[in-house]
Amino acid sequence: MTTLLEPAPVGADMTFDRMLERIRYEGAYPTRERAEAVTRAVLECLGRRLTGEVRAALASCLPQEAATALLALPSEEERLTGWGFVKDLARRTGGTPATARWDAGAVLGAVDDLAGPALMDRLLAGLPPGYALLFGRAELLRAA
User: Fold this and answer.
1) 94 pLDDT exceeds 90?
2) Residue 138: per-residue pLDDT
3) Do 44 and 89 contact (CB within 8 A), yes or no?
4) How far apart are CA 94 and CA 77, in angstroms?
5) In sequence order, what are the residues at sequence separation of 6 or more whose Cβ sits closer than 8 angstroms to the Cβ of residue 42?
6) What does the buried/exposed string (b/e) look like for 3-26 if buried means 16 or more CB atoms within 10 Å of the residue's CB?
7) Other residues' Cβ atoms within 10 Å of the Cβ of residue 143
8) Distance between CA atoms of 33 and 68, rounded to whole angstroms?
9) How high is the mean pLDDT of the chain?
10) CA–CA distance from 68 to each of 4, 27, 30 (Å)?
């Protein structure tokens, strides 16, 4: 069993429990229940920002419980920047932008590892600026 002192490895056979162990470690959450609440909130907010094939492809990379959270709410037309995503997450969870940014980073880092580079490149290409940093990636600027 993985403890809070070591992160759970990420891979194609990742279970939801192992994903939560990793998120609990990365986010320094005191309990599994807190890590699960944060995970569900972040995935629900992310799912609202994604559409079509990329949304379905990402869901297929996640453990079933995480995929269910990602697909729980319908997609929205409003395109939020990464900072807008953080503010929306803070508003929905009753937290501050600082805690929402922390929560997003803890969860989306695990999502990035599960999705892999090719899918993440497609996902980030379809989102407004600011999301790459939330996934623990460098934000590359597009040439004008």
Assistant:
1) yes
2) 84
3) no
4) 23
5) 89, 103, 104, 107, 108
6) eeeeebebeeebebebbbbbbbbb
7) 4
8) 17
9) 90
10) 25, 21, 24
